[in-house]
Amino acid sequence: MPNTELVVSGLGFEATDFGWSVTLGPAYPTFFGHRLTVTIDTTPLAMPFSQLPRPNARQVNLVTFLLSRLDDAIFGCSVAFRKGCADFGIVASLAPPNIWIPPEEQSDTDWSWSLVVERALDPDDGYHIQCEGLEVVNMFAYNDLMSE
To answer: How many structural domains compose the chain?
Structure first.
Protein backbone atom coordinates (compact mmCIF):
# COMPACT_ATOMS: atom_id res chain seq x y z
CA MET A 1 0.00 0.00 0.00
CA PRO A 2 1.48 3.39 -0.98
CA ASN A 3 2.20 6.05 1.60
CA THR A 4 -0.52 8.65 1.09
CA GLU A 5 0.50 10.98 3.91
CA LEU A 6 3.33 13.46 4.14
CA VAL A 7 4.54 15.47 7.14
CA VAL A 8 5.99 18.95 6.51
CA SER A 9 6.57 21.38 9.38
CA GLY A 10 4.62 19.09 11.69
CA LEU A 11 1.51 19.09 9.48
CA GLY A 12 0.03 15.91 8.01
CA PHE A 13 -0.54 16.47 4.30
CA GLU A 14 -2.79 14.07 2.40
CA ALA A 15 -2.30 12.95 -1.18
CA THR A 16 -4.36 14.55 -3.95
CA ASP A 17 -4.38 13.95 -7.71
CA PHE A 18 -1.63 16.56 -8.24
CA GLY A 19 0.29 16.56 -4.95
CA TRP A 20 -0.34 17.08 -1.25
CA SER A 21 -2.81 19.18 0.76
CA VAL A 22 -3.69 20.11 4.34
CA THR A 23 -6.24 22.48 5.89
CA LEU A 24 -4.65 24.59 8.59
CA GLY A 25 -6.17 24.45 12.05
CA PRO A 26 -7.64 27.28 14.10
CA ALA A 27 -4.25 28.21 15.60
CA TYR A 28 -3.15 29.56 12.20
CA PRO A 29 -4.03 32.96 10.69
CA THR A 30 -7.09 33.15 8.47
CA PHE A 31 -7.96 35.12 5.34
CA PHE A 32 -10.88 37.36 6.32
CA GLY A 33 -12.08 34.68 8.75
CA HIS A 34 -11.66 31.78 6.31
CA ARG A 35 -9.31 28.94 7.27
CA LEU A 36 -6.50 28.30 4.81
CA THR A 37 -5.52 25.19 2.91
CA VAL A 38 -1.93 24.58 1.79
CA THR A 39 -1.52 22.64 -1.45
CA ILE A 40 1.84 21.45 -2.77
CA ASP A 41 1.48 20.33 -6.38
CA THR A 42 4.32 17.98 -7.31
CA THR A 43 3.14 17.17 -10.82
CA PRO A 44 1.28 19.15 -13.51
CA LEU A 45 -0.66 16.00 -14.48
CA ALA A 46 -3.04 14.00 -12.31
CA MET A 47 -1.64 10.61 -11.35
CA PRO A 48 -2.33 7.64 -9.08
CA PHE A 49 -1.21 7.99 -5.46
CA SER A 50 1.28 5.15 -5.90
CA GLN A 51 3.21 7.25 -8.46
CA LEU A 52 2.77 10.66 -6.83
CA PRO A 53 6.11 12.44 -6.38
CA ARG A 54 7.06 13.79 -2.96
CA PRO A 55 7.67 17.55 -2.66
CA ASN A 56 11.15 18.64 -3.63
CA ALA A 57 13.50 20.62 -1.36
CA ARG A 58 12.37 23.96 -2.87
CA GLN A 59 8.73 23.24 -2.07
CA VAL A 60 9.44 22.01 1.47
CA ASN A 61 11.64 25.06 2.17
CA LEU A 62 8.96 27.42 0.81
CA VAL A 63 6.17 25.85 2.89
CA THR A 64 8.36 25.92 6.00
CA PHE A 65 9.19 29.60 5.38
CA LEU A 66 5.56 30.58 4.69
CA LEU A 67 4.26 28.82 7.79
CA SER A 68 6.88 30.61 9.91
CA ARG A 69 5.79 34.00 8.46
CA LEU A 70 2.14 33.26 7.71
CA ASP A 71 0.84 36.40 9.45
CA ASP A 72 3.00 38.56 7.16
CA ALA A 73 2.19 36.57 4.02
CA ILE A 74 -1.57 36.68 4.59
CA PHE A 75 -1.49 40.35 5.59
CA GLY A 76 0.13 41.24 2.24
CA CYS A 77 -2.46 39.19 0.36
CA SER A 78 -5.28 40.79 2.36
CA VAL A 79 -4.09 44.29 1.44
CA ALA A 80 -3.85 43.33 -2.25
CA PHE A 81 -7.30 41.74 -2.14
CA ARG A 82 -8.90 44.84 -0.58
CA LYS A 83 -7.27 47.09 -3.20
CA GLY A 84 -8.04 44.91 -6.23
CA CYS A 85 -11.39 43.36 -5.46
CA ALA A 86 -14.23 45.00 -7.35
CA ASP A 87 -16.82 43.70 -4.87
CA PHE A 88 -15.39 43.29 -1.38
CA GLY A 89 -18.81 41.97 -0.30
CA ILE A 90 -17.88 38.60 -1.81
CA VAL A 91 -15.70 37.88 1.27
CA ALA A 92 -18.67 36.21 2.98
CA SER A 93 -19.14 33.84 0.03
CA LEU A 94 -15.55 32.65 -0.36
CA ALA A 95 -14.44 29.03 -0.37
CA PRO A 96 -11.49 28.27 1.92
CA PRO A 97 -8.54 30.09 0.32
CA ASN A 98 -5.70 27.93 -0.88
CA ILE A 99 -1.97 28.61 -0.55
CA TRP A 100 -0.79 26.97 -3.77
CA ILE A 101 2.81 25.85 -4.17
CA PRO A 102 3.23 25.06 -7.89
CA PRO A 103 5.16 22.14 -9.33
CA GLU A 104 8.69 22.82 -10.57
CA GLU A 105 7.48 23.15 -14.19
CA GLN A 106 5.12 25.99 -13.26
CA SER A 107 7.30 27.88 -10.79
CA ASP A 108 9.00 31.13 -11.83
CA THR A 109 11.45 31.15 -8.90
CA ASP A 110 12.23 29.22 -5.72
CA TRP A 111 9.86 31.52 -3.80
CA SER A 112 6.83 31.51 -6.17
CA TRP A 113 3.42 30.74 -4.67
CA SER A 114 -0.16 32.00 -4.99
CA LEU A 115 -3.13 32.51 -2.75
CA VAL A 116 -6.10 31.19 -4.70
CA VAL A 117 -9.39 32.74 -3.57
CA GLU A 118 -12.62 31.37 -5.09
CA ARG A 119 -16.33 31.82 -4.50
CA ALA A 120 -17.84 28.84 -2.67
CA LEU A 121 -20.79 28.47 -5.05
CA ASP A 122 -18.87 29.31 -8.24
CA PRO A 123 -15.22 28.25 -8.24
CA ASP A 124 -14.83 29.73 -11.72
CA ASP A 125 -15.10 33.19 -10.10
CA GLY A 126 -12.06 34.02 -8.07
CA TYR A 127 -8.63 35.53 -7.74
CA HIS A 128 -5.01 34.47 -7.90
CA ILE A 129 -2.74 36.58 -5.71
CA GLN A 130 0.74 35.76 -6.97
CA CYS A 131 3.64 36.15 -4.56
CA GLU A 132 7.41 35.86 -4.37
CA GLY A 133 8.28 35.11 -0.77
CA LEU A 134 6.34 37.70 1.24
CA GLU A 135 5.87 40.15 -1.64
CA VAL A 136 2.67 40.27 -3.70
CA VAL A 137 3.71 40.66 -7.33
CA ASN A 138 0.40 40.31 -9.20
CA MET A 139 -3.30 39.72 -8.73
CA PHE A 140 -5.71 38.65 -11.40
CA ALA A 141 -9.34 37.60 -11.46
CA TYR A 142 -11.45 34.99 -13.17
CA ASN A 143 -14.51 36.21 -15.11
CA ASP A 144 -13.55 39.91 -14.90
CA LEU A 145 -14.17 40.37 -11.18
CA MET A 146 -11.23 42.76 -10.80
CA SER A 147 -11.87 46.47 -10.51
CA GLU A 148 -10.72 48.59 -13.44
So the answer is: 1
